[in-house]
Amino acid sequence: MMSEQLPLSGVRVADFTWVWAGPFCTLQLAHLGAEVIRIESESRLCVTRRIPPVADGQAGPNRCGYFNQYNQGKHSICLNLKKPEGLDLAKKLVAASDIVAENFAAGVMDRMGLGYDTLKALKPDIIMIALSGYGATGPESPYVSYGPAQVPMSGLASMTGFPDFPPMSVGFSYGDPNGGLHGAFAVLAALMHRARTGEGQYIDLSQWETSVALVGEGIMAQEMNGAAPQRMGNRDPYMAPHGLFRCQGEDRWVSIVVADDAEWQRLCAVMGKTDLAQDARFATLADRKDNEDALEAAVTDWTTTLSAEEVTRTLQAAGLAAFPAITNKELAEDEHLRSRPFFAQLEHPEVGVRQHAGVPWNFSDTPCHVRRPAPCLGQDTEDVLQRVLGYSADEVATLKDNEVLT
Amino acid sequence: MSEHPSPSPHPQAPGPLHGIRVVECGHMVAAAYAAKLMADLGAEVLKVEEPGGDRARQRGPYPENIPHPEKSGLFLYLNTNKRGVTLDLEAAKGRELFQQLVKDADVVVHNYHPTQLASLGLEYEALAQQNPTLVLTSISPFGQTGRHREYTAHDLTLWSAGGIVFLGGAGGRPDLPPLKAAGQQAGFQAGVNAGIASLGALYARLSTGRGQHIDISVQECLVAIMENNYIAWPYDQTTPSRLGFRLIPQDVLPCRDGYIYVLAVEEHQWQNAVELMGNPDWANTELFQDFLSRSVNWDALKALLEDWLQDKSVHEVYHGAQQRRVPFAPVSTMGDLLKSEHLNARGFFAEIGHPEAGTLRYPGAPFKFAASPWTLRRPAPCLGQHNEEVYCGQLGLAPEEVQSLQATQVI
To answer: Are A364 and B124 inside 8 Å of each other by CB?
Structure first.
């Protein structure tokens, strides 16, 4: 049987990551066709196997939406790394891999006996990526960090929020997926380097630094003028109206952006408000910025008479940018996304068919897609030991009896 | 170049993408960030701007807040390590020159709208005919197919369409709207996705020998990063929002000189935080005995924490907490970051001069490669800075031809 050709066909990843940043990095590699083997342990379950949402309110390590979303396409093996035989198996797996990924705090892999120098001796061209909160060097590198902390640490929170409020979070643990995506990009660059030179390498990724990369213009403002942009809610210095406007229904909102004066005239026409079109308070961008409270009130007068969907359809038909503040339910039911098709719906042995977010890139020649659902805990242990590491069924049974595969 | 010590043992080694040729076009953030990621790792990137320039040049920050197309902080940051030419893709001659530029390229990355591609000569079939090994990465708000493909968008409406805006904002304040993250976050997320997909396709090409077209929907890039908020619907039919309950207590709280982010995920972290606070009696009450009760009683807990924090500095609380393995974090200002002992010890900020904007420090390598380092080799290009170098030196046009293209505003 010919297996399908994918960008990373034949690339194997020994995946020591957990929680979110690391698994999100290796998810991208799995999407691209790599064989990603997560090394897990029954005694140290990944937190995403323990937290809500759980399928139909019934808990269990294989029933968590968080894990099952971000580990699609991967394999799972259980190794007891506290046993010498377990550690030995981990090293053998690394020797049979192209990439090692981990996101423990700096120094943890070294203490486990799985530091880069050790692994490089086993596999000279290994590519190893460490995704830590602070990076592997620097005075704060031993500090503890979680993804949500990256929003305040990076300065994104200091610029996010309403003017008279304290800095605000962005509603989710943004630092994690962002670190994971930058990590996947770095791994791919290292693979290109290896293809050209034969050389592997160690990549030290700091989630703090990958988060600061998202606020580059803030850093530049500070450098240029000694001050960063102020918190301005949903407003924008260069466009108005620019915000979320209340619509009919409970907690229903639509986002609207008017990019220039001509678009403002179009919006007035669509709203049927000729008086606003001629209102000197709103004629130019500068006028609209000066009178933005009144401007937003005038737009809200119109949006509150309609549903967010009607506002969106009407404005888009006039070439104006608008979209509802969509909920997860609406995303799940969105006909556009379903038609792309964006969602991955594979049969999972414990939770059945669920509509997971799929691959956000469509490749024309080597179509990437989710090839298997997220693994149940340890479901691939025997397969990987036999197929990849060459152990016999009897040897695997002995290892199991000796509690190495837990 | 930066005076900070580089942690790389091979500061002069070529980057991991050495030898890869990228052409970038479009506006603002998504395509520019994808190409910046590649340029900063050694790819040779040519930025093709319309004669009027990338719209990012029209956005600040600017020195002394005086608009100037060569001094936009956003543009300067997003376009390091690139060369730049101008070209009108809507003119027939412009499209012809673009075809020549693309003939030897490995990647073209752009974020022009799907409805514009035919008139700009950016359709895959046309480009692939000339260069079958080309990877064409097309970033668009909602993708190249589907009923919303023609919808127009900006960063705010995309953050909204990706489902993320519904999560942000002030808890307990249904009167206030959902809140977007500051800056151009949809653009950055699309950019890093486009970088990943482009390199994936380049790696595929090593074995297939073929290029391909990649269609990237910004909306999908955002739905893919919503933590457990999207998947809550298919798993337990709940809809998280800014107004909902938080499982783990966390918040931004004021200190005497700034804000601290307070978080304790594990029980021992909370116990260590209690010790840091000097073991107050209230901490032993049932109200706060585990993370669930601390979440339920967060308003009461928050008031007590604020009381403790009011005369403390961010610095003392942050380092005091971290020395006890408690994951508190500073709410950094941009100034704090530039002064950070940790970031500077890592040599994070990179300094370079620009002919118009002067010498400035930029955010540097977000990842450190041991063998093939990130480098800052040149500042962002001035508008059309490399026209002569590229059109004469690379495509072999005579200087008079370039002048006539300039006169007819093709470049």
So the answer is: yes
Quick one: pLDDT band at residue B4, thresholds 50, 70, 90?
very low
Does the annotation mark A88 as catalytic? no
Asked if B144's CB is within 8 angstroms of A213's CB, the reply is: no
Cα A308–Cα A314–Cα A316 angle in degrees, nearest 5: 95
Strands A253-257 and A356-357: unpaired
Q: How far is CA B65 from the centre of its chain?
A: 23
pLDDT computed for residue B295 by the predictor: 87
Tell me, yes or no, if B185 comes closer than 8 A to chain A by beta carbon.
yes
Q: Select which of A15, A98, A176, A380 is catalytic.
A: A176
Radius of gyration of chain A, Cα coordinates, nearest whole angstrom: 25
Residues of A in contact with B234 (CB under 8 A): 65, 332, 354-356
Element (H, E) at B97: helix B92-103
Structure tokens at B17: 């993408």
A12-214+340-401: CATH topology: Rossmann fold (3.40.50)
Domain identity same for B354 and B293: no
Residue B11 falls within a domain, yes or no? no
Query: Is position B346 within any domain?
Result: yes
pLDDT digits (tens, 9 = 90+) for B149-191: 999 999 999 999 999 999 999 988 999 999 999 999 999 999 9
Contacts of A328 in chain B (CB under 8 A): 163, 226, 229-233, 239-240
Task: Please indicate, yes or no, whether residues B324 and B196 belong to a single structural domain of this protein.
Answer: no
Q: Are residues B348 and B379 in the same domain?
A: yes
Whether residue B309 is contained in a domain is answered as yes
Contacts of A165 in chain B (CB under 8 A): 170
The span from the first CA to the last CA of chain B, in angstroms, equals 31
Q: Specify whether B79 is located in the same domain as B175.
A: yes
- Does B49 fall in a domain? yes
Of B333, B363, B385, the residue that ends a domain is B333
The total of structural domains in chain B comes to 2
Whether residue B1 has pLDDT greater than 90: no
* pTM of the predicted model as reported, rounded to 2 decimal places: 0.97
**Which residues of chain A make contact with B331, given a CB cutoff of 8 A?**
152-153, 157-158, 167
Comparing CB atoms, the residue among A178, A224, A323 nearest residue B61 is: A224
Q: Which of A254, A233, A239, A242 is nearest to A302 (CA)?
A: A254
* Closest to A116 (Cα-Cα) out of B369, B5, B347: B369
Residue B367: which of A168, A204, A331 has the nearest Cβ? Answer: A204
pLDDT tens digits for range A278-330: 999 999 999 999 999 999 999 999 999 999 999 999 999 999 999 999 999 99
Side chain identity at A278, as an amino acid letter?
A: Q
Give the integer Cα–Cα distance in Å for A205 and B192.
Answer: 15
Q: The domain spanning residue B96 has which CATH number?
A: 3.40.50.10540
Nearest to A241 by CA among A278, A272, A276: A276
Taking the Cβ of residue B67 and every Cβ of chain A, the question of whether any pair is shorter than 8 Å is answered with: no
Q: Which domain holds residue B40?
A: 21-226+342-407
Give the span between the Cα atoms of A105 and A39, in whole angstroms.
Answer: 17
Chains A, B: CB contacts within 8 A come to 521
CATH number at residue B254: 3.30.1540.10
Is the same domain home to B89 and B210?
Answer: yes
| Same domain flag for B206 and B286 | no
Average pLDDT, chain A: 96
Q: Does B359 touch chain A (CB under 8 A)?
A: no
Residue A385 DSSP code: I
Decide if domain A242-327 falls under CATH 3.30.1540.10. Answer: yes
Question: Mean of the pLDDT values across residues B308-336?
Answer: 97
List the domain boundaries for chain A: 12-214+340-401, 242-327
Residue finishing a domain among B310, B333, B356: B333
Do B305 and B176 lie in one domain? The reply is no
Return the pLDDT at A106.
Answer: 79
pLDDT per position as a tens digit, A43-79: 999 999 999 999 999 999 999 999 999 999 999 999 9
Which of A141, A219, A242, A353 has the most B C-beta neighbours within 10 Å, making it the best mutation to test the interface with B? A219
- How many Å apart are CA A320 and CA A345, to the nearest integer? 34
